[in-house]
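Course assignment 3, question 2. Fill in each field.
Student: A.L.
Task: Predict the tertiary structure for the chain below.
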Amino acid sequence: MSHLSIRNLQASIGDRPILKGLNLEIPKGEVHAIMGPNGTGKSTLAKVLAGHSDYTVTGGEVLLDGQPILGLEPDAIARAGLFLAFQYPSEIPGVTIANFIRAALVARQPKGAPFDAKAYYAHLYKKMDELKIERNFTARSVNEGFSGGEKKRCEILQMLMLEPKYAVLDETDSGLDIDALRIVAEGVNKARGPETGFLVITHYQRLLDYIVPDKVHIMYDGRIVHTGDKELAKELESKGYEWVQKEWANA
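Answer field:
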């Protein structure tokens, strides 16, 4: 039962269907990548999994280690063990990074359980050092005035601290230069292990040079249309997304 299971998922925004019967199984311990053209539903999938209110689920189910999560509030989905790194992270003025992550950790503890602040900061600083984030960063408001690379590093820091069961990374490579991409990828690779499953959503094969996936899925018109190993990403890069449209437009 240690899977994130997506079965015949259908979702729309307004009266426009976007996900049209999507099926995907992500076991713990594996990294799966989704690639596909713009407008095919990749970011919609990420947001539906996280419980975003703009989308209406019209069919199917999502099971996190056997437990249904569709219809739950986003905070309940997060507490169940799903983490979403947004393509465009939101700013939270007045809330420092240190307090934001601390509040998230406290919310996952049993009610009334003591919180070891000293151990928390020691662990936080260790993870910041791994991501090459200056320690005074903790006093800054979440994402306020951050560069694209700083936002992505901050999200990976949150992931490393929260240790989710499953992490969905929605175009984490968007807007990153090579150095920032390498650092973010190193953070993801440090989190890989038998107790965590990853879904990496990306347009470009370059990210998968650093985060090597166990499986690559091609998404088109709201469905997974083809699955392969890491070589599939290279094939897609060389042939381009027109190949996807020609191959599966009438499937």
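Instructor remarks: The two ends are 31 Å apart (CA to CA). Residues 3-248 form a domain with the Rossmann fold fold (CATH 3.40.50.300).
Grade: pending
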